[in-house]
Design goal:
Order of helices and strands: HHHHHHHHHH
Distance between the termini: 83 Å
Helix content: 55-70%
CATH topology of one domain: Tetracycline Repressor, domain 2
Number of strands: 0
CATH class of one domain: Mainly Alpha
Radius of gyration: 23 Å
Length: 239
């Protein structure tokens, strides 16, 4: 048998990681065995442990690879819309909440695809660190593009309060909605979930809470404390 060059061996290893990133998202980590991975990469089963210490080690690399692919897609959005964050946001959300994305998990968002599996992993799982790093990077990109103010919040009843965790709210909304939409695929509810989540993020980006036709908020700010007679209740019923 011809000896494989070091360069070819590295290419083979990269191919296994690529296939793992796809298949784990598509079928779940427990739904894909080592033999499946190697076959998908066009390699023999016996060569797996020459390339990876364990399946757990491969999972960690696959998670990192999937988030790396996401990062490349986000960078491509910025290149197509230089300096135009609203346009980049719209293109991302158009795809993210689409039926195509919902129905093709293998090439989709790793935050959703790996989240359920990693939640069941034991503490100290090798994949937790690349998942957290990838999620943070995704949130960082969203911070300037999806809206970081909570339209339902107020600051003393006068102006909107900044939401320091608005990027995490956006990630949680997106990943959670996609997971639920996939779980209910084939039902009317699935489409409604995607539509509702998209509307919520659009409202957030506009700084309104499903406001009027001009985009202004419909929420009425409470009067300042000095305008409330002693012993009376706040407008929301709280004393």
């Amino acid at each position: 048998m011809a000896r494989v060059s070091r360069a070819q061996a590295q290419q083979n290893r990269e191919r296994v990681i690529d296939e793992a990133a796809r298949l784990f998202r598509e079928r779940g980590i427990q739904g894909v065995g080592v033999a499946d991975l190697m076959a998908a990469a066009g390699l023999t089963h016996g060569g797996f442990y020459k390339r990876f210490a364990s399946k757990e080690a491969l999972v960690a690399e696959a998670v990192g690879r999937a988030f790396g692919e996401l990062g490349e897609r986000l960078a491509a959005l910025d290149e197509r819309h230089p300096g135009d964050h609203p346009a980049a946001r719209r293109e991302l959300l158009d795809f993210y909440f689409s039926a195509e994305h919902r129905d093709h998990a293998g090439q989709g968002c790793p935050a959703t695809a790996f989240g359920g599996d990693l939640a069941r992993e034991a503490p100290g799982s090798l994949a937790r660190e690349p998942y957290a790093a990838g999620l943070s990077g995704f949130a960082g990109w969203l911070a300037d593009r999806v809206g970081t103010k909570d339209p339902a919040a107020d600051n003393g009843g006068h102006e909107e309060a900044a939401d320091d965790d608005g990027d995490l709210v956006a990630v949680a909304t997106m990943a959670g909605a996609l997971m639920l939409a996939r779980a209910t695929a084939g039902t009317e509810l699935s489409d409604r979930i995607l539509t509702a989540a998209r509307r919520s993020l659009d409202d957030r980006a506009r700084g309104s809470n499903r406001g009027g036709p001009d985009g202004s908020t419909m929420r009425t700010a409470p009067p300042p404390p000095s305008a409330i007679p002693a012993g009376a209740s706040e407008p929301d019923g709280r004393p």
